[in-house]
Amino acid sequence: MNTELKNTLAQADKLKARLQAVRPLDVEALKKIQAAFEMEYTFESNRIEGNTLTLQETALVVSEGVTIGGKSMREHLEAINHAQAVEFIKEIAHSYIDITERTIKEIHVLILHGKTKSGRGVSVPFLL
Predict the structure, then answer these.
(1) Under 8 Å between Cβ of 123 and 114
(2) Which of 50, 52, 113, 127 has the smallest set of CB atoms within 10 Å of its CB?
């Protein structure tokens, strides 16, 4: 085994030992980690679709209800709707209900709520 690989593995072992020393994580730490992960997930999912909100702006829109100057209503709705859909999916997972076509459509409605093709933010009805 070469020296670089040995050093990398030794560093990984040290990091693993540090992690093991703080386990189990307390409930509040786990909640903070989960909240950060969910916000990053919302940000990255929307960014892939062309949303220009930054991670910090996404957090402000979702958590505080702040509107960001220079950003479209569509971008605000994408962040809010995605976060709400994630919450709904978590509720489904915790309730152990079957995922049906209707459930998928409900998630779809949450994602698209208040959006139109023009992106003006006018709510449109969806058939379930």
Answers:
(1) yes
(2) 127
Determine the Cα–Cα distance for residues 99 and 97; give it in Å rounded to an integer: 6
Number of neighbours of residue 89 by Cβ within 10 angstroms: 14
In residues, how long is the chain?
128
Q: What are phi and psi of 125, to 5 degrees?
A: -75, 145
CATH code (residue 121): 1.10.3290.10
For the chain, give the mean pLDDT. 90
Give the residue numbers spanning the domain of 95.
Answer: 25-128
Q: DSSP letter for 34, please.
A: H
* 6, 19, 28 from 9: Cα distances, Å: 5, 15, 31
Please tell me what DSSP assigns to residue 25.
Answer: P
The identity of residue 127, as a single letter, is L
Taking the complete model, does pTM exceed 0.85, yes or no? no
